[in-house]
TrEMBL record:
Signal peptide: none annotated. This is Glycosyltransferase 2-like domain-containing protein. It comes from Candidatus Gottesmanbacteria bacterium RIFCSPLOWO2_01_FULL_42_22. Keywords: Cell membrane, Glycosyltransferase, Lipopolysaccharide biosynthesis, Membrane, Transferase, Transmembrane, Transmembrane helix. It holds the Pfam family Glycos_transf_2. The keyword Transferase applies.
Length: 245
């Protein structure tokens, strides 16, 4: 059966030295999105990668772009953090829907096809959740603790806060303004979309062992910084009720 046609879609990838996987992920995402719409684009945010990785990215995109200039790179000369990369990607997107996931190949872009049926005019976010987390044991435990803490503190209506496999209606950003520069942007994003009354749906997706790069969020060196950022965000959103700055 032919898939139902979707609205226009931006495919967005934050990129940090993931040259080994970005080409295949972009190809899989484009192959999937073509089944649903002819109106698509790809935005790759190069967040201060090493020059050799930046050169590799440009070469890969040049090859993939031979059939049409729909793939563009947004370059940060210096690393701005995961939140900074997502904010640049959202700002560069021009289509009705924005699908994003990471470049480390822990998610299958073809499962975008699972998110699209849940997207309707009232929906602001379709959030994936991991069927089973494929990470070392300490990261699985850290991820569960992190989710339960932020879900309770912010009353988040999702079961997997750090599943970076999301489909977002770009129109939500007329109301939702994002300011976080770290991985805590995921909490900010979900909380603000919920606060402004947009519907949120969840879809189970597969999670795979990392084949490229390393985690930029859950490592012991960043735990104290993450805790501090979360407290500041909680104070702003829950105590001050400030959803605009």
């Amino acid at each position: 059966m032919k898939p139902k046609k979707a609205e226009s879609i931006t495919i967005m990838f934050p990129f940090l030295n993931d040259w080994g996987t970005v080409g295949s992920l972009v190809a899989l995402a484009v192959g999937t999105v073509k089944k649903y719409t002819d109106n698509w684009e790809v935005v790759i945010v190069n967040d201060g990668s090493l020059k050799s990785n930046r050169d590799a990215l440009e070469m890969i995109v040049g090859l993939l772009n031979e059939s049409g200039r729909r793939i563009k790179i947004v370059t940060h000369e210096k690393n701005r953090g995961y939140g900074g990369a997502l904010r640049s990607g959202f700002a560069a997107a021009t289509k009705d829907l924005i699908f994003y996931t990471d470049c480390d190949a822990q998610y299958d872009p073809r499962e975008l096809s699972l998110l699209l049926p849940k997207m309707n005019p009232e929906t602001g976010l379709v959030n994936g959740y991991k069927i089973k987390r494929s990470d070392p044991f300490h990261r699985v435990i850290a991820g569960r603790v992190y989710h339960y803490l932020v879900a309770a503190a912010f009353n988040l209506p999702v079961r997997d806060t750090d599943c970076d496999f999301r489909l977002i209606r770009r129109a939500v950003f007329r109301k939702v303004k994002l300011f976080e520069n770290t991985g805590t942007i995921c909490v900010e994003l979900v909380d603000k979309i919920n606060h402004f009354g947009f519907k949120i749906y969840e879809v189970p997706v597969h999670h795979f062992w990392r084949t490229s790069g390393k985690s930029q969020f859950f490592n012991f060196r960043r735990l104290s910084a993450t805790a501090g950022n979360l407290f500041k965000l909680w104070w702003k959103l829950r105590v001050r009720k400030d959803f605009q700055t």
